[in-house]
Design brief:
This protein has 239 residues and is an alpha/beta fold. The chain has helices at residues 22-32, 66-79, 115-120, 131-143, 166-172, 186-196, 218-237, and strands at 15-19, 34-40, 47-52, 55-60, 84-93, 103-111, 126-128, 148-155, 181-183, 199-208. It has a five-stranded mixed beta barrel with strand order 5-9-8-6-10, surrounded by four helices. A hairpin with a 2-residue loop joins strand 3 and strand 4 (55-60). The two termini are 26 Å apart.
Length: 239
């Protein structure tokens, strides 16, 4: 056990699906897993382990921002022998070609933050998803005929609609990376995996875009997120 996780060694499967929201973790367990059990309640960062189509898979929330996902993913990798983490979450589109509820698979993740410097004394601001894990996810998407967009994303310390001048932030992004979306956690997850020789991937559903005026309903959001959840779980079967 750790100060953040009351689970015992062996309570987590080798593959963990990680949403940010603890209630989304609960939703996935209740709606997609068989014979699941609650393995963590510390700080209400709910974690469950069950079976999806006969394969043991865990789902655990990671909270908001790089510091939070950094703690939980590090402990899962280092102390609970987890091998694969697939983060699932929402994102904001930075490309006119993306529509609401498009699913993005992150390739390279950029950040202006200093997570790597603080954690590992490395001045690193770009890290890549695990190629094998991404390949499995793309294979699942192809088989199920589920459209996913693979591209580079940025990981921020603040959502852009709260930034005092988001245009200045956009202009600082490296143009050669052709960044298509933004979220707040993937860099820390990918960097932990890199340091600990583990595997990490990130699937995101577009829930807002400066190029789209439409507001999504609660039902549309749930249906859109379910598509991403199913892709992640189906990938978990093959790992």
């Amino acid at each position: 056990m750790t100060p953040h996780n009351e689970a015992n060694l062996g309570d987590f499967a080798k593959t963990v699906i990680m949403p940010g929201d603890p209630l989304r973790a609960k939703y996935i367990a209740e709606n997609f897993l068989d014979d699941y059990k609650l393995v963590n309640t510390v700080r209400n960062m709910l974690g469950f382990t069950g079976y999806y189509k006969g394969k043991q898979i865990s789902v655990m929330a990671h909270g908001m921002g790089m510091p939070s996902v950094g703690i939980y993913s590090y402990e899962l990798y280092k102390l609970y022998d987890v091998e694969n983490i697939i983060r699932i979450g929402s994102c904001g589109a930075y490309s006119k070609d993306l529509d609401l509820f498009d699913v993005i698979l992150a390739d390279n993740v950029h950040t202006e933050g200093n997570y790597a410097l603080t954690f590992n004394n490395e001045n690193c601001h770009l890290v890549q998803a695990d190629k094998t894990l991404n390949s499995v996810i793309k294979q699942v998407a192809d088989i199920s005929k589920s459209k996913i967009v693979v591209g580079n994303t940025t990981c921020t310390d603040m959502v852009d609609f709260y930034m005092t001048n988001p245009k200045k932030f956009f202009n600082r992004l490296p143009k050669k990376l052709d960044i298509i979306a933004a979220e707040m956690e993937a860099f820390a997850l990918f960097y932990n995996a890199k340091v600990l020789n583990k595997k990490a991937a990130c699937l995101m559903t577009v829930v807002d875009s400066p190029f789209i005026e439409k507001q999504a309903s609660a039902e549309e959001r749930e249906q859109g997120l379910n598509k991403m959840i199913k892709i992640a779980l189906e990938a978990g079967i093959l790992l």
